[in-house]
Amino acid sequence: MPTSDTAHLSRPCLDQNCIQNIDRAHCFSVQVLLSHGMGGPTAMTPKTPPTDASQVGLYAAPVGASMLDAYERIKTKILSGDFAPGARLSQVKIAERLGLSRTPVREALRLIEKEGLVTSERGRQIVISKTSMEDLDELYALRIKLDTTTVRTTTAELTDADLGEMREYLAQMEANASPDKFTAFDHAHRMFHITTIRGAGPRHVEYSAKLNEHAERYRKLYTVQSNSYGQSRDEHLAILKACEARDGDTVAWLLAEHYARIALTIVAQIDPQFEPRQVRTAVRLALEGRPGTGRKLEI
């Protein structure tokens, strides 16, 4: 959702083509800022980009485009674990490591900090936010609450084209169902879920996409399980069939179990003594009205 200092710039800018082609679904706030010229007047760029890395800094790329590039690359490093949770890095080192200038790195880190992925310290140092069972519990409880409520409305409005996209994303997931292809798998996975809710509007999509992205750091732990990809395939296929039937309640029930299973599996693997009370409460509420709701969720 737009932050307090950018809310006045926001405007609906979402169409299906945009959703289909973005590499990272949570680009909306950044794109809005760039479309309004966050960086002010931009310098002229050469028609032919320099090939000598030592000369790149001499040519000023458009500020907005440079900041978006920095935002995407830094955030990808964090979510993929290349910038490890708890690591302390300097803005200068990040800029040098990624071959970026310092100004767009500084502006990108301000946005990323608002998402809770980093914390700024003195001396232009930043700390990558740690993962924790408490964070996982809150994150997946929010996903269950938001997405299960949303699909009860949007499922009935899914078009044949939407369902075709979901089938394609499911095929991409199947083709990339191995830990060494996690990035491609997870992109298709994110887009599969976004397709089910985008009819609710850009604010729902943006917030759900941000939660989905933050969950990536935890999903990587889940997908190392020997049966995780087979389990994922079966659950997503069941969700797709319920969407084809335009059965919003069933989609919500299946989605709640899908999210909860991932969270509970990770907890059991890392800290079996931790009680994920928020996830358990969220899934219990989401499953109300389902026949046989009293049965225990298996992981």
Describe this protein's structure.
This protein is mainly alpha-helical. It has 2 domains: 38-43 and 61-128, Winged helix-like DNA-binding domain superfamily/Winged helix DNA-binding domain (Arc Repressor Mutant, subunit A, Orthogonal Bundle), CATH 1.10.10.10; 133-286, Up-down Bundle (Four Helix Bundle (Hemerythrin (Met), subunit A)), CATH 1.20.120. 59% of the residues lie in helices and 4% in strands. Strands 1-3-2 form a 3-stranded antiparallel sheet. Strand 2 and strand 3 form a beta hairpin.
Features:
299 residues; mainly alpha; Arc Repressor Mutant, subunit A; Four Helix Bundle (Hemerythrin (Met), subunit A); 2 domains; three-stranded antiparallel β-sheet
The arrangement of helices and strands along the chain is HHHEHHEEHHHHHHHH
| Strand proportion | under 5%
CATH topology term of the largest domain: Four Helix Bundle (Hemerythrin (Met), subunit A)
> Helix/strand-derived class?
mainly alpha
CATH top level label of the largest domain: Mainly Alpha
Q: Order of strands across the biggest sheet?
A: 1-3-2
